[in-house]
Amino acid sequence: MHEKQTYNVIWFRNDLRVFDNYSIEKARKENHPTLAVYCFDPRHFEKTKFGFKKIEKYRAQFLIETVQNLQKNLKEKLNISLLIFHDYPESVFPKLSEKYHFQKIFLQKEWTQEEAEVQKNVHYHLPEVEFIETYDQFLFHPEDIPYESFQNIPEVYTQFRKKAEYHVNIRPPANLPQPQPKEYLVEHTTQIPKLKELGLDEFEKDSRTAFPFHGGEEAADLRIQHYFWDTCQLQHYKKTRNGLLGPDYSSKLSAWLANGSISARKIYWEVKKFEKQVVKNNSTYWLIFELIWRDYFKYISLKHGNKIFQLGGILNKNLDWNQDKEILQNWINGETDEPFVNANMKEIAATGFMSNRGRQNVNSFWAKELKQDWRIGAAYLESMLVDYDVHSNWGNWMYNSGVGNDPRDRKFNIQLQAKRYDPEKKYLQTWLGGQKELF
Questions:
Q1: Residue 196 CB-density burial (10 A; 0-12 exposed, 13-18 middle, 19+ buried)
Q2: 118-174 per-position pLDDT tens digit
Q3: Residue 399 marked as a ligand binder
Q4: Is residue 337 domain-shared with residue 275, that is, in the same domain?
Q5: 258: domain range?
Q6: Residue 17's Cα: distance from chain center in Å?
């Protein structure tokens, strides 16, 4: 009988890069051949309990492009085959284990319920295989933060930021390992699914989009090259980050960060290089400040677990929420009585993107003005956003809905916001066109 080849496996999920990837680094330090697996899990393209598909066409297309680029980079740079499946991981891994002998599976540590459940099921089918999990999505690594446990993370961002900034040295990026011998490449015939195979509609990019970019690690590198070095826009980031139109009012790195095709560490060290070679100012610091916010929501999720998905949020607040289908449809369609909200909702529907300023306003309007169940709004943005990150999305929605980490429990004056951030009504004109009486 033919003896099965022994392999270590890298199971990719939200760490879709080759540079600065702890799982790759650890797997290649072992003496066994390495192969990689990615699953387009059918559950990710089904409707959630709120009636929206977990991943809609914009993020799905970005993900397809990202996985294509990952497959290319793994093969060209490391001689590692990426085996791609449109199937459940708990079905894929047992079948693969009939063909190959798995020693260890290396993967980025995920802790939210759905991801943990899938991993538990895979582990159940492969009891002999060792799972090597690594926290690899942070700027401040969990082993380095000045708190004895996640339960000690403060409920106010500024307290966390100041203490972490003072105590933590950001780790250098992980090195790209030497490629393994080419004979360890394996034949694999599964194709990356197209949108239609995922049950989604094909689309043309809208010319008005503020996010005209492709998915993948190489596209992320091109974006850094453009935003940091070709245009030096980074030096103006703090002044322009509340913009609404065009690709360069903010870094737009969020989508690559969300699926892990670039690491927070890499961005941090690129900022430090920019500060040495070009300029160090409030804007360069502010990009790091926003990366720390991203970390903070991850730590809040680690501390509070499933509370981030519950109606009362992490505060267990018993507020009077409503669920009105007509109000929801008007909000989604951009047919409310607030033009600024409408413009933002039309933008996300047409492009899968919305500015940070827009997100805060549509969230505040939905939860504080319309008094609708904030989780429905969070679930809609989860579906539509090209840069959806579970911790940032649900953390921000709690924050702006009065059930999260906002010590002041603010409510936005939408019309004042529109006048401040769109004084010439260019944004409204772009997305609402010739509609009369914008105010």
A1: exposed
A2: 999 999 999 999 999 999 999 999 999 999 999 999 999 999 999 999 999 999 999
A3: no
A4: no
A5: 137-172+217-309
A6: 13
Of 34-43, 187-196, 293-302, 394-403, the poorest mean pLDDT is in 187-196
* CATH number for the domain harbouring residue 122: 3.40.50.620
Q: How many residues does the chain have?
A: 439
Q: How far is CA 377 from CA 335, 389, 392, 400, in A?
A: 15, 15, 14, 11
| Half-sphere exposure of residue 88: CA atoms within 13 angstroms, side-chain side | 13
Count of domains observed in the chain = 3
250 labeled part of a ligand binding site: yes
User: Does the annotation place 245 within a ligand binding site?
Assistant: no
Residues 321 and 230 in one domain: no
Which pLDDT value is given to residue 439? 42
Whose tokens are 């490629």? That residue is: 179
Q: What residues contact residue 156 under an 8 Å CB cut-off, 6+ apart?
A: 405, 407
- Cβ 153 vs Cβ 314: under 8 Å: no
251 among annotated binding-site residues = yes
Could you tell me the CA-to-CA distances from 414 to 207, 338, 436 in Å, in that order?
26, 7, 18
Is 47 in the same domain as 60? yes
What percent of the chain shows pLDDT beyond 70? Answer: 98
Q: Is the pLDDT of residue 28 over 80?
A: yes
In a shared domain, residues 106 and 21? yes
Among residues 289, 309, 329, the one where a domain terminates is 309
Q: Please give the average per-residue pLDDT across 313-329, as a whole number.
A: 96
- Asked whether residue 224 is domain-assigned, the answer is yes
Query: Residue 253 annotated as binding?
Result: yes
pLDDT in tens, 179-234: 999 999 998 877 899 999 999 999 999 999 999 999 999 999 999 999 999 999 99
Q: Collapsing DSSP states into helix, strand and coil, what is residue 284?
A: helix
Run of H or E residues at 360: helix 356-364
Are residues 235 and 95 part of one domain?
A: no
The answer to whether 149 is a known ligand-binding residue is: no
315 is in an annotated binding site: no
Beta strands in 271-376 (DSSP E): none
